[in-house]
Amino acid sequence: QVQLVESGGDLVQPGGSLRLSCAASGFTFSNYAMGWYRQAPGKQRELVGTIDRGGSTNYADSVKGRFTISRDNAKNMVYLHMNSLKPEDTAVYYCSRRAGLLANVYWGQGTQVTVSS
To answer: Is pLDDT of 100 > 90?
Structure first.
């Protein structure tokens, strides 16, 4: 019953901004750290950043200073705010429930972000 639904992906121009949302259900959201991953064509899925149960965040060097992850436990939502977007940010972005065991990790279906002029 765990479900993660990403939304907000779009075509944006370089330098633009976008906010992605992830709606979580089917588990006690506040008990889990959450993460955002992305996968560009022909590349491995990479970690964008994480947010722990208390709201502390970590980011990949490639996005640090430009992206911000936040969460609203009351709404079971996690967000990815993206600023100063670059063409290399083009990817499918996935929300994930992080866990100590791989079997307990869940993924959404992803949302496409395309940065192009």
So the answer is: no
